[in-house]
Amino acid sequence: MKPLRRWLGWPALLLVLMQLLGGAPSMAGAASAPANARALPPEAANAQAAVLRPRTVSWITLSREFPGAFATRGPAGLKRVALTFDDVPDEQYTPEVLDILAREHVRATFFVVGQRAAKAPSMLRRIHAEGHAIGNHSYDHTSYARLSESKFEEQIESTSRLLKAHLGYTPRFLRPPYGEITPSQLMWTQSRGYFVVNWDVDTQDWRGLSADQIVRNAQKTLAPGSIILQHAGGGIGEDLSGTVKALPRLIRLLREKGYEMVTVPELLGESEEIERMRLF
Question: Would you tell me which CATH number, out of the four given (3.20.20.370, 3.30.9.10, 3.40.50.410, 3.30.200.20), belongs to the domain 60-278?
């Protein structure tokens, strides 16, 4: 399996902010990082450059400019949250996460990397068969902000074709790798009927944190309507055992606080997407 590489994302996000403010050219033609690059994704890079706050500002701006195509959370009127898992499927952590969710009778949302699904189609079908929602998470986890227009579109469409072949439908929801997407790219996804889903609760589990740290991180910005970011597929050398150990505790904590755990389509009131899921 080709490894999913981590990229240093905050420069791209800063360019997104500059673009929104009219001070930078489009990033569609930006050069990608070297193929052997491995650095912190924007979740961690943002903490290193907190004074700039590029991710927070750009995501707020995007959600305001594209309310029908971009969200980081659901409605705050009900005590509902959505557990989401990125970078699936893999053959180590994905089954463990699915086992826990089945035991706890919780449905979640899994964002699929096409390259991985092509090598583990049975795991993709298991995710769907157990009642979870599925979204598009690119083909090989390259940051969209670094791609040409045609390569960006192919990242999404190639995964959509694969998902339709195995699931019988094309999921409406997609999550950009590292949460990075430009306004022009968002206009394209909206024109094709996709809805971009990022998050407002970051467990930072990809860093190999302990279960205690992951549960603490999950509580920092937790609120009604939250979309919680976790991972159920690891890049090369990544240890997600903390995610697996934390998940039962997180579910118990959410229940104790009175939260209902639902899929992203349920959280956002996407009845059409829910119905399409049931057609398979």
Answer: 3.20.20.370
